Every structure is written in structure tokens, then in C-alpha cells.
Amino acid sequence: MIDIIIQCNKRYINEREYIYNYFFQERLGLKYNISYNENICDKVVIELPNKEHIYIADILFNTPINLWLKKDSLPKNPLHIIKDSVWTNVIMNNNIVELYGEQKEVFFTDDKNITIDIFGSAFFLLTGYEELVLDDRNQFGNFPHDATVIGKEKLIQRPIVDEYVELLWNCFVMSCPTLIKKQQKFRFIPTHDIDCAFLFNENSLFGHLKNSFGDILKRKNLVTLWQRNASYFFNGKCDPYNVYDWLMDLSDSLGVKSIFYFKNSMAKSTRDYPYRINTKAVKHTLINIDKRNHIIGFHPSFETLENEELFAREIKGLRDYCTHIGINQKIDNIRSHYLRYSNPQTSRWHEKYEFIADSTLGHRDRIGFRRGTCHEYFIYDIEERKQLNVKEFPLIVMEQTMKSEFDCFQTRFIAMKRTIDICNFYKGNFVLLWHNATLVEKEDKLLYKEILKYIREIM
To answer: Is 400 found in the same domain as 281?
Structure first.
């Protein structure tokens, strides 16, 4: 039985079908049909099961073809903000952000008009539309937070797409209370980029002996001497970066799986630390992760952003080696080093090399919701105008970003709680990146444990 009939014009059919499926099928779990009608100009008409109609502003998908992916098609800063406290309990805020819309003072009128183009606005955010329009890039080749429409308004900590989903649903049930929504649960997804597998295990014998004598004669640090030699001679044992079992134990206690993104590169630069995956220490670690039913992912090196041959070589090497040592899980999760991402080329490579899940899309300098959501979604290739078979699990918090934004344990923990609460409110995913190499200090380990303790209370 069809729950919803969507009536709209035929402009940008591929884009419409993508975003309607996202809202109605993936998020709300409603069955729907699309009825194309060229007599409909500036509205999307939603017919509910009880024959009630809701009219939604339709701005972006009426953009003239010659302006598509041009600056004139971008939302205009400052964004229009609707101050309407009626919806506070629906979206955790007393105002509603309008990217595209009719610039009205109310969101939902008495004659059942939604004045924001929620479909076009969500499409803009989920696809990173502006990244294909503007040339701004930071030193890592990424589109910078401060250049985004959301960044200019300091709205990165609001999952605007999730807000639109909840607003739309509430408009539906106000008009048709018998509708039933798809049930979703909050999920915690702990992830770990292994930029450096071990601190001491990779040294040459000469380098190891030199540093050991330095521990004795110069630094006079017998603890480091012990760690260094245990790591070097006993396959990473006691190495400060060897926190794999510790992390998996904590994840197991919550009933979740950690994802460990391993590199496969001997590139040595200020952006890459080289390590070999075929050492006894890394081999043991990979086998142990697999044996404990956690997830091995791929972390392509810095230069792979613009080098497909290098990208292909690194992932083939990692997959082949894992197969060689008896690991049967498929390596199909990925996150780019330095969160490097070129839209849409990076996602095309992900699909080509059979990845099904990416978690790159967060900002290095801001925690929050780069794509406006804490839910996973299929990537859309704007240039080729098609949905890819790769799901994005947006990165919400990276520990290094958190540390740069907040200066002490207490403020960091408060920020984490606030962000977790938002993800929980919208029944989305709290994707946390915490590098193994930044769990050396006791305070870092304590903060990580306190975050997981708080998550346990709400799961």
C-alpha cells in the first residue's frame, strides 16, 4: 500500500528521486509514488493517505539549467532564520534554518504550506553541492569549514538535515495521525585511524640501540627504556601505541565494534608516517582484531587523493596481505588520511574499488555535522547525476579537533556530552575518531572512558 504520493514537475528528475528516497524510504520508512506534473511550478505537493495535502517550497530544483552548479544557485548568506518556538521540542532549537525557501516568518502555515525548500536544502548539504561550485581549498586540499554556507553562520553543530526530517514528519502526523514512522536507534561507532601502528617497534637495530642508550644516559627514563625494548623484541608488547585490546575491551563492554583503519604505505613525509603491515607486530594485531570480530578498514596515504594508481596499489596490498594471513573479513570500510576528500572523485574511487562505507566527511577544525546529519546515507555523484553504492557515515568528532577547540578535560567532556545528546535525540550515529597514538596520556584514556560511560547510560 502506498503511503505518500509526491507531485512535482520534471526538472532535475534524478536529483528529486534521490532526495525523495532519502526522506521517505531511508529516513521515514514510507512507501511512496512520484507523479510528475508540469503544471506544478514552485511547490512539491504531498498527498497523504487520508487525502490531505501538504505543499512544500520547491526552489533549488527549479534552478535554470545554465545556473546549476554556479554561484548564483548557492544559498545567500546571511541565511534566513525562522524564529518559531512552536517547534522547539521537535528540533532542540527555537529557530529553523532556511537555506532555500520563501523567506517567510513561519515554517508551516495554516493552509499547510511548508515555506522552506527542505528537499533542495537537504540535497545541497548531503551532496556537498557548494564544493563543486567554489574553488576554496585548505593546505590539505580539503574544502574548508569557513568557506561553507553553514560555517559562515556558525551552524556546524546543528544537524540541519535531521531537523528537516523531523519537521516534515511532524507536519505529516499533524495532518494524518495514522502514519507510522520507521523506528531508528542511536548508535555509537568508535573508529581509530592507525597513522602509526607502534611507537618503538619499527626502528632499525641501530636506531633502537641508539635510542635505548639515550633513555639511559640522556633522558634517564627507565620506563621508556622498558617499553622500547619490550616493543622491539616482543612484537609491540608494552608499546605506548598498542592500545588495540584496551579499545576492543571497551567496545565489547558496550556491544559495539571498533573500526581500525590501517595504512599500507612506506611514504615518509610530514604528512605520512611509514610502517609496514607485514611485521610480526602488525600481523598479530590484524589477526587479533579479526579474531575478536572487530573491523579492519583502509586508511589511504596522503598522496592518494590525486593518485589513483597509488590508491589502488595500497588497498590491493592490504587486502592481499589480510587474505594471506587468514583474515576472511572483507576490507570495505575506508577513511582518508587527513580527511582528504575531492568531491565527487574520491567517492567514485571508493565505489570502483568496492568499498561500501566511508567515514571521511567531517571537518578537521570543527566537531559537528559537516553534511547536516548524523545518519548514514548513500553518496550522490552530482556530476554524473547518480547515486553511488557507497554509504557515508559522517564523522562527528575527531579527538584532535576536540582538543583544539576546547582547552581542558571538563570543557571537552561537556562538548562531547552535548554532541552525543544531539545524535541520540535524532536517533543517529555518533561516529567518534580517536587515534591509537593519542591514548598515551592517562588523561586521554580517562576522557575516552568517561565518554563511553556516558554513552552506556543512554544506549
So the answer is: yes
Residue 26, all three cell numbers:
531511508
- Whether residue 235 is contained in a domain is answered as no
Asked whether residue 152 falls in the same domain as residue 191, the answer is no
User: Same domain for 193 and 78?
Assistant: no
Q: Are residues 139 and 245 in the same domain?
A: no
For residues 34 and 126, what is the distance between their CA atoms, to the nearest angstrom?
Answer: 21
Res 237 pLDDT > 60:
yes
Is 259 found in the same domain as 159?
no
C-alpha 289/C-alpha 297 separation (Å) is 11
Amino acid identity of residue 45, one-letter, is V
Residue range 244-261, pLDDT digits in tens: 999 999 999 999 999 999
Residues 406 and 446 in one domain: yes
**What domain range is 151 assigned to?**
4-175
In this model, does residue 228 exceed pLDDT 80?
Answer: no
**Residue 157 domain flag:** yes
Report if residue 205 sits inside a domain: no
Tell me the C-alpha distance between 97 and 75, whole Å. 11
Q: Quick one: 255 and 349 in the same domain? A: yes
**Tens of pLDDT along 170-199?**
999 999 999 999 999 999 999 999 999 987
